[in-house]
Specification:
Number of strands: 9
Order of helices and strands: HHHHHHHHHHHHEHEHEHEHHEHEHEHEEH
Shape: globular
Number of domains: 3
Strand order of the largest sheet: 1-2-3-4-5-6-7
Radius of gyration: 48 Å
Distance between the termini: 166 Å
CATH superfamily of the largest domain: Metal-dependent hydrolases
CATH topology of the largest domain: TIM Barrel
Strand content: 5-15%
Largest sheet: 7 strands, parallel
Structural class: alpha/beta
CATH architecture of the largest domain: Alpha-Beta Barrel
């Protein structure tokens, strides 16, 4: 039995490792089962379908020249890329040209349509009224736009810049008229004011006349900016075709104030070298009472020609042109003689320019042309009348006749600061002040004018 037990125990011992051995493959199988997720990496096989899509695109490589963009983005062989480049270049070019022709064709049609529309508003009679901003002008007989424009141009053609000499300058004429005070005691005239035809003034001419009566004046002279040729600074003046409208406006106002105020016809005439013959013809267009010469440094044309070098040289050129304007004999009086002090007003110093002014005033005095004391200078950037008191004294020393003008662009400024202006003249050495009628100068004692304004304002109050 002992032997049997031994053999049994040996068998049991042998069976244990065998069982252990049998258990080991079970453990091994478990990792195999766990490794069976190895097919899970086989699941990326659909991810490998992405490279499979590459072969799918490979057949589309034959379709690359059609798709163009897809073949260019993906990594094609260099040869197809070169072929794909010219293909898109050639195809967009005709498409652009076609687009251009399509756009240009309707654009031309639109332009043609617009070109048909403008002539219709030109026929409307409201154009002259809208350009001036004065509704009453429509009632004037000469206001219709198309016909006066054509007839005026045909009947009165003004030459452009001409080198022909103008008529010899005539000596100023003194009027034999002895001024008589009106019923209110008024003696004096405001010799510079505008109408809305100049495109930068406001109010009806009748409003200016009514203000003159309140200011104690006997008369006024309208001096609107004259027409100029070749588009010379057109935004501040009436056009040539509006000259008849201007004449009618002044006449209408004169009729309305007959017996109350003497309303006269004048013109502020732009001086610019080369336009003398043109201006001479313009001055003969109507029976003017007064031609006021003006050099305006503000115009684009003037700046383009004379704004060279220093500020002082520019100012000297202004005074030189002022003397030339007097020497033409075209004008009765010279407006705002030192207007150029508003060019860089912060740097204005009369002492620097005084020698030039002295020479210029000597030349003007020889012509006998009057000069203006313009009260509107108090409203400009350099707040001082034009001219200033020192220049006034130099003018008085040379016995240059003096005229006072308000340069009104609004009715309330008619006669403004006249008492101050008259006192300035007396302090500068003047004894007389002047105005013009029928292009002839009339002189008045300053003391008489001051007392007449006071009497008339009291009477009209």
């Amino acid at each position: 039995m002992s032997n049997t037990k031994k053999t049994i125990s040996k068998k049991v011992k042998a069976a244990k490792p065998a069982a252990k051995a049998a258990k080991k493959p079970l453990v091994v199988k478990k990792p195999v089962v766990t490794k069976k997720p190895a097919p899970k990496p086989s699941k990326p096989s659909p991810k490998k379908a992405i490279p499979k899509s590459v072969p799918k695109t490979s057949p589309t490589k034959f379709k690359l020249p059609v798709k163009k963009t897809s073949s260019a983005t993906k990594k094609p062989a260099p040869a197809p890329v070169k072929k794909a480049v010219p293909a898109p270049i050639q195809k967009p070019v005709p498409t652009k040209t076609k687009a251009l022709t399509k756009v240009s064709a309707p654009a031309k049609k639109k332009v043609a349509a617009k070109s048909v529309i403008p002539p219709e508003p030109k026929i409307s009679t409201a154009l002259v009224v809208s350009s001036t901003g004065m509704p009453r002008i429509a009632s004037l007989p000469s206001a219709p736009p198309p016909s006066p424009k054509t007839t005026v141009k045909k009947a009165f053609s003004l030459p452009s810049i001409s080198s022909e000499p103008i008529a010899a300058a005539k000596a100023p004429v003194m009027s034999s008229e002895k001024p008589v005070a009106s019923k209110s005691g008024a003696l004096f005239y405001d010799s510079h004011m505008h109408t809305p035809l100049c495109k930068h003034a406001w109010g009806e001419p009748e409003e200016y006349a009514a203000q003159a009566v309140k200011a104690g004046l006997k008369g006024i002279i309208f001096t609107c900016h004259c027409p100029m040729p070749d588009g010379f600074w057109p935004t501040v003046r009436m056009s040539e075709s509006e000259m008849d409208v201007y004449l009618d406006l002044v006449q209408r106002t004169a009729n309305a104030f007959k017996g109350k105020l003497d309303v006269c016809l004048g013109l502020e005439s732009e001086y610019f070298p080369g336009y003398e013959k043109w201006l001479e013809t313009m001055h003969q267009r109507a029976s003017f009472d007064y031609i006021l010469g003006a050099v305006h440094w503000q115009s684009k044309e003037y700046l383009n020609k004379f704004e060279v070098g220093t500020i002082e040289n520019f100012r000297r050129s202004y005074f030189e042109n002022l003397a030339l304007s007097a020497e033409t004999g075209l004008y009765d009086c010279l407006a705002h003689p030192d207007l150029v002090k508003n060019y860089h007003p912060d740097s204005w110093c009369f002492a620097i320019i005084k020698n030039t002014v002295t020479t210029v005033l000597d030349r003007i005095a020889k012509t006998g042309v009057a000069m203006e004391l313009n009260t509107s200078g108090l409203n400009k950037s350099y707040s001082e009348m034009n001219p200033g008191n020192e220049m006034l004294r130099m003018m008085a020393e040379r016995k240059i006749p003096i005229v006072i003008g308000s340069d009104s662009h609004r009715a309330p400024r008619v006669g403004e600061h006249f008492i101050t202006a008259l006192n300035n003249l007396a302090e500068a050495g003047f004894e007389h002040v002047s105005y013009f009628k029928k292009r002839q100068r009339i002189d008045l004692k300053i003391s008489d004018v001051i007392s007449s304004i006071k009497r008339a304002t009291d009477a009209n109050a």
